[in-house]
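sanity check this record:

:::
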Amino acid sequence: MSAGEKGESPPPMTVEEATRIAAHRTLGELYETRAKSPEGTWADAREAIENLMLAGEPARAWPLVESYVRALSAKGLRDEAVGLLARCEERGLTGDLLARSILLRHDLRASGGATVDDLAAEVGRALSVAETDATRGLAVHRLGRLATEQGNVAAAAGLLEQAEAYAVRAFGEGHVEQAAALQDLGAVLASQGRFEEAEAALRRAVGYGETLVTEGAIPEPTLGTWLGNLATVLVALGRHAEAEELLRRALGMLEDEALRGPAYGALLKDLSDVVASRGEAEEAEVLAGKAVFAFEAALGPTHPMLAVSLAAHADRLRDLGQSLLAEGCLRRALSLYSEANGPKHPTSVELLAKLAQAEFAAGNPLALETAERALSLFDEVLGEDHAFVKENAPLLRSMMEMAAPEPTGAGPQSLFAFYEGEIGRGIRALEENDPARAIEVLLPIAEQAHDAGIIAVEGTAAGLLAQAFSLVGAGAPAVTCAQRAVDLAAQAGQHEAERRFRCCSTRSWATSRRRMASVRRVTLRRVPVRRVPVQRAAVRRLALRRVAVRRAAVQRAAVRRLALRKLAVQRAAVQRAAARKADRRTARGGQSGDRQSGDRQSGDGQSGDGQSGDRQIQRRGRPWGEVGAGPRWAIVRRGGVTCRRCGRRLCRRRTGPSG
């Protein structure tokens, strides 16, 4: 039993101990004052923390501890921050301060990748020593987040509701902690499918967030993330217009380059899905591509979270008929996610099934093998009652059945046997005067062939669909399909098929139900299905495009080198000309001095008839004397003269009036 439990007073403090504590307190107060001043540094804060802790005043040192730990964490010095908290706990932290220290260490370890079980044990210890509602609310909030990560959403919802209640009792309505708890609670309720309750919680969080941003309590990008979560719930409720408005507003809040990261990419992906739902396929594909770029820039090219945005981009590419590009995106997404979580993770299985469908649409012969692997993993991983299995398993099985080789022993068939079989079913439905069944069979084939770029299959299906729509009295779709068939037949060079399809492309023919015989004749004489190696042709086009790009780059480099070479030659010529000019100026200065001295020596001994002047060459632009009396030489450039009569050019030293 301790001295305190026996009711005994603690032992008296010696003079040396009292002096030491007083000195630490004085130093701590001085360093605290310096640390809080504008000229203060983190070294002052560290000294203040150490001295105040040694003086036995942890409550006074705690604000500095929190600030210093967060600064160390921002610099990446996580181990140093954890060590500081451990020293503070050893020097007498108790109660709420000990609980807050444990929660701070929990946050640091969570960012360092600690396991959920270890983190939950730490938070439980903090909750056990907490004394106020504010600290209990912080601990319960973290327990709710850990339960969400473990997948225990029911427990997480209860814990987050308790955290919100603790925040209201501790701080009142509208505090940051209450808004954060409501935000996490709304996300958990949405994951349970309780979208109306999730919307109510998220709207309360967003309402508080508007005020908190105005007060400066939270940054604007945090509110943008909350708006994105609310928009996701509104999409689930079918309110796409309101969701799109919120998403665009949230993107504006995260537009700064320094803030673009996973949150920005998630908002772009959600906006792409919303835009695609209203039929804007091109804008949706652009947004999905930007989402992939944002995720890759923030997380790196190998992060598994990138797989989700790649799969969404593949869906948008398939909407535009670019199945080959979609196949590449899905293959990369499957590789990233399987490497991180294993091939038997539910998301990996879903990506494998989507890859099989993209390969099938692109005409890849590997589609059957991929579909078989996906079906086997459906039963093993997801189960028959899974929503994704119910939606995609029938399609994969029909692909395998229709494209399976016939039992004739002739060898394996191509995937185009599936198209031939389906078109045959549509023809039989038309012959049996059942246009509704023909439309049901042929419409998916036309869409798949359009995605794969198989002109012959799409043209045949479009022509048969035109006739089926005309039989049910739908004139506008019949004309549209017939015109599409005409364009594809012309593109494929099948002029007979183009002529026969053109007769269906007028509204008078499409709306006339008395032309049944003509319908049957055109149906029976259908466009043959050509087995075009779509993937091989696409690869060839891509290779030719790359060769053209390389040739253009080589040509640009050669032109650049030639231009640089010409520029070097011109610079050298200019330098040589400048050097010659300088030499001539120097020589000319010496000659002019000699002439002047000679003129002074000759005096009046020379006659004034211009004979001596004729023997001297004047500078360019200076007259020779009277017209007709001058010499027959004229300077055309420095260093030489040209005869005015015969045009002969001579050196300056040989010039004279007699020539």
